[in-house]
Amino acid sequence: MPDPAKSNDDERMILDSVEQFLERDVKPYAMHLEHEDIWPEDIVGKMAELGLFGSIIHEEYGGLGLSCSTYAKIVEVVSREWMSLSGIFNSHLIMASCVQRNGTDAQKRKWLPKFASGEIRGGLALTEPNCGTDLQAIRTRADRDGDGYRINGTKTWISNGIHGHCFAVMVKTDLNAEPRHKGVSVFLVEKGEGFRPSRKLEKLGYKGIDSAELLFENCHVPAENLIGGVEGQGFRHIMGGLELGRINVAARGVGVSQAALDESVKYSQQRETFGKPIAEHQAIQLMLADMVTRTEAARLLVYRAADAFDRGERCDMEAGMAKLFATEAAVTNSMDALRVHGGYGYSKEFPVERYYRDAPLLTIGEGTNELQRIIIARQLIARNPI
């Protein structure tokens, strides 16, 4: 049996290393990089040295082999400092997880060590200009061509699209399959002839990580890059990976909520009105009480979902609840933080305006919160039949 005390010590050591990295290499630069929308090349290199690109990749392939529970805590502390960084390695790790869980032995041996080291980085290419939540409606197609496939289509809002090297691309290999999901496959596609980013997408927030439109024009991909080696399994592969993605986004929500709370607690003790710190005014106290309660509740939902994932249980309901609650908490806390700060909250001199811009994305990414409510309700009924 694993020693719980040793496991906790290992986790604390890893989190301490991440927090030192954030304090030393991120905090002094995040505001500038964010406001100038500069991709943080040096920081990404240091994340690779820390092993973050291999966080949940098994040790036999050169990764850290961390549990989802520990990984979620890493995401939280990173997001507390600068949420954009968590997206750089999370999108990459969902791609890696797809290979680790569903790839052939040859695919795991070839790709996972390079993913773990950060030598090859990337993410998922799912969303299309006319298709987001309904992934079965994708139009990007892969047609058999000799010893490989030719991919044609467009993907959009792809994280790491400019600076990433390789992507797990969802395509249609059978346009006439019924039900539609049986015609969906996923390929690992490296940038090169026939595959390029067509443009960088400008965003309200979530700066620092590049989001792009990707164009596939008669892009040849070897058959050995079909994840799992069998057509028609891609939808199942991606849905399994999205549980991890939703836990990650929920952990980001906790991080943003905590950051908004921390800044509000600090500022409310510094700012004075009517002869006393605003922290002594009941209106501010009520707001702070709600903010901390929201944050702690969100954190516990994330821990519960991550524990279920680590046990190998189906956890789309738990991940959905964590994602729904934690991301809504981030939105509300970011608005409350802005109100606590008053006019200064609207200023770029303080980080709360960044939380206010970043938080809404969390309610959209990895499945909208409206979709999460549907998933939660359906699972609730399925688990409680009469």
Your description of this structure?
By secondary structure, this protein is α+β, with helices and mostly antiparallel strands. The protein is 53% helix and 15% strand. It contains ten helices and nine strands. It has helices at 4-26, 30-36, 41-50, 68-102, 105-117, 234-270, 282-310, 316-341, 352-362, 369-383, and strands spanning 122-125, 141-145, 148-159, 166-172, 184-190, 195-200, 211-222, 272-273, 276-277. It has a four-stranded antiparallel β-sheet, covered by helices on one side. It has a three-stranded mixed β-sheet with strand order 1-4-5. A hairpin with a 2-residue loop joins strand 8 and strand 9 (276-277). The model has no long low-confidence stretch (mean pLDDT 94).
Brief sketch in words of this structure:
The protein is of the alpha+beta class and 386 residues long.
Shape: globular
Structural class: alpha+beta
Question: How many DSSP helices?
Answer: 10
The largest beta-sheet arranges its strands as 2-3-7-6
Helix-strand topology string:
HHHHHEEEEEEEHEEHHHH
Number of strands: 9
User: Can you give the mean pLDDT?
Assistant: 94
Which radius of gyration do the C-alpha atoms yield? 21 Å
Separation of termini?
39 Å
Which stretches are poorly predicted, pLDDT < 50 over at least 5 residues? none
Task: Please describe the biggest sheet, giving its number of strands, its sense, and whether it closes into a barrel.
Answer: 4 strands, antiparallel
| % residues in beta strands | 5-15%
Q: In which range does the helix fraction lie?
A: 40-55%
